[in-house]
Amino acid sequence: MKGKILVTGGTGFIGSHTTVELQNAGYEVVIIDDLSNSNRDVLDGIEHITGKRPVFVEGDCKDINTLHQLFKDNPGIEGIINFAAHKAVGESVQKPIMYYRNNLNILLNLLDLMPVYGVKGFVFSSSCTVYGEPDQNPITEDAPTKKATSPYGATKQMCEDIIADVIKSGSPIKAILLRYFNPIGAHPSAEIGELPNGVPQNLVPYLTQTAIGIRPLLSVFGDDYDTPDGSCIRDFINVVDLAKAHVRALDRMLNDESEDALEVFNIGTGNGLSVLQLIDAFERATGVEVPHKIVGRREGDIEKIWADPKRANEVLGWKAEASVDETMLSAWKWQKRLRERGIM
Length: 344
Ligand code: WQD
Fold this sequence. Notes:
This protein is α/β, with parallel strands linked by helices. It folds into two domains: 4-185 and 235-267, NAD(P)-binding Rossmann-like Domain (Rossmann fold); 203-233 and 270-307 and 322-338, Alpha-Beta Complex (UDP-galactose 4-epimerase, domain 1), CATH 3.90.25. The protein contains eleven helices and 13 strands. The strands form four sheets. Strands 3-2-1-4-5-6-11 form a seven-stranded parallel sheet, with helices on both faces. It has a two-stranded parallel ribbon with strand order 7-10. It starts with a strand and ends with a helix. UDP-4-deoxy-4-formamido-beta-L-arabinopyranose binds at residues 87, 89, 127, 129, 180, 182-183, 201-203, 206, 218-221, 232, 234, 275, 298, 301.
């Protein structure tokens, strides 16, 4: 058995998939989540997959006393993976104070308490959004970060800087920043997956809800970009592959595999795929048509971005494995499971 890990936001999309992979790797998991954008039922899904129910604390990581109590009730936590954050790009433009207060205060509380309770390793859920519109693709970790195009992106950049400053100040912790590209898909068991509240902002949940008939039409935001088919290009990464990267990052820190107290990795496939190509991939993999139409561009969208995952492959020892077809099938199986359960 490996050590005990705190997963903040662990009933969320990426948090729940990461909890499964942590348990599969032999870690014991404690989840804290305020359930503002997820559901307690996710714990049943995790237990159905691994046979182990994580310890669950319903609480707000912005409340430092909640965190003190959690660490006292769950001694021996060796690492933290921090997913707890608001993450809707569009919403952040409308509610910047809510985003700055939530995303920054959660991070500050965790970094404050880690040395108090002897927590060694910190994995931060960052995002390719810190790069802004790349000057060239594929993009490496050394690419310059540009001014964020949204408060959401700005909080990710600020959190990365805060972590670097805290470590530079002499804090005994180690940290790894994982810059995700576009997480998609669901666990192959269809026990857990992406379950956004309300109308999905992200492409794939909107796509699968259209395919099953919940939405009449998928709008493709623009086909006049400087790309082969005119639609935006992204690096779509299977969520289970992404989850495994977090296990590797924790192992690396807790096993002292690196001298560096702070490391950054791009977590992507290295392949750029356009929005229209992804729709084609879904239709080809599932045989289900997705009614869609081209509309105007969405404010703030990046034209094209995909990762150079060389450092993650060679240094972190992680590589994306799932194919696009397999990932599209997992998203579709999950959407059908939600229908069978009468959830949507
Ligand atoms: C992808 C592409 C849209 C919906 C953001 C964050 C990133 C991460 C994922 C949290 C774009 C197009 C979308 C639709 C469409 N956040 N699209 N019709 O904006 O690349 O990334 O979410 O983990 O940090 O920046 O993801 O899925 O919203 O959009 O045409 O109904 O799909 O224009 O080109 P995005 P997305």
